[in-house]
Amino acid sequence: MKQPNVVFITADDHTPSALNCYGPTLVPTPNLDRIADEGMRLDNCFCTNAICTPARATMLTGTYSHTNGIKTLDDTINHSQQWTLANSFHQAGYQTAMIGKWHLGHGGQSNPIDFDEWNVLASNSGQGKYFEPTTLTSRGMQHHSGYVTDVLTDLSLDWLERCNPSQPFLLWLGHKAPHDPFQYHPRHSDILTNVDVPEPCTLHDNLAGRPAAALSTQRVERMLGFDKQHLPESTPNNLNEEQRHSWLYQTFIKSYLRCVAAIDENVGRLLGYLDEHNLTDNTIVIYTSDHGFFLGEHGFYDKRYMYEPSIRIPFLIRYPREIPAGTSSRKMALNVDFAPTLLDLAHLEIPNEVQGQSLRSIVSGDNPLTWRKSMYYRYWMHGAHFNVPAHYGIRTENHKLIYYYGDPLNATGATGDHTNPTWELFDLKRDPEELQNLYSDPTYAHLREQLRTELRHLQVELGDEPYPQQTP
Question: How many angstroms separate the Cα of 338 from the Cα of each of 25, 121, 282, 293?
Fold first, then answer.
């Protein structure tokens, strides 16, 4: 049987709650929903480090940040010492392309390899621009007219047109959207204009009782102060603080969802191309995101924290030859699993250094009894942005333990000295919004110690070192 083609689509900051297939939203996502309707939706999929560059490195290598060395936005992938997904597909005779957001080396420090063609967003930060984007290719810089989500899809369709139909292909399309500054195309400016988007129940959370480590500056109420969001320069007059907070939320969430609308339209264009060229049945299509995103929960935006909105990511997969349509799974999946899953579905060998597990049995409709029951997370960028401290932790099916191993950071972003650790413990079944820290609750003492022990076991198993102040 002919090896399957692969279309791997990664968004940036696209949280599951902004897709209709994960629960009704006010902006339709029919094309993204189509992938779920014709395949499988994973309902418990998580990233292992909620920041762009490390998350992308994990998807590419099937390894954790501490293993592949990409822990922060400033780290650069070392191709000479690192196996990548593209390497195996390239050696297996696949036509390979990386188009869009690469973000694995600032300013072209580390360009894609093992891709026959690469055309990636160019800027010093690796983010690219929403309008009139510039891309970097092996042949130099290219300047494009139009809106980035449309442009990247145009480039992808052009590459598919030039592919040899006798060989399988791997297309990795990395969208910039809906990353800030949430600049949407004018054709979507009428979406939600006369609608109030329902606020999350914790939008006005004052974070009372939270440890200082959780009091970051990534607050919706402070968005105007960072000069990077797609927001007006000032709020309307005569608003009290709560009204101002709500107004900022409405402006932010509508801009974000309008960016999502463009992704959905362009996913539809790709799916239409596969249909028109009789490629649908033999093509694996995956849609996911590098990490989640706070849409006002706890008054936050952005990501980084180990809280649910930040680490939870969408994962939709369609492959008609093997994956039953209209299915879903609640098994715990991680972004470290994506590379081995694609290799397995393509009947390629999974290298020993890969730390993830193939999801093939799950997406094919099986229910493996020995599947993981817990996951390990670590965020390394202590105080780099929004005063978020470095932390790591464990999430099980019903509980979460987080260890902030640095001092709380002051309002100017000065780094603490890592001598005042803080813990959080949440019962996710009783408290899905993560409002009550149970770490000091004596009724949870036994569970607390169990989780600490399991956390250490995961670190040993995965080869990561705990911060020295952590006690056994």
Answer: 27, 23, 18, 20
Can you list the domains of the chain with their CATH numbers?
Answer: 5-183+251-373 (3.40.720.10), 375-462 (3.30.1120.10)
Tell me the mean pLDDT in the region 316-339. 98
Question: What is the model's pTM?
Answer: 0.95
- Output 413 or 375, whichever has higher pLDDT: 375
Dihedral (Cα; 159, 164, 168, 169), 10-degree rounding: -10
**Tokens 């006002």 map to which residue?**
296
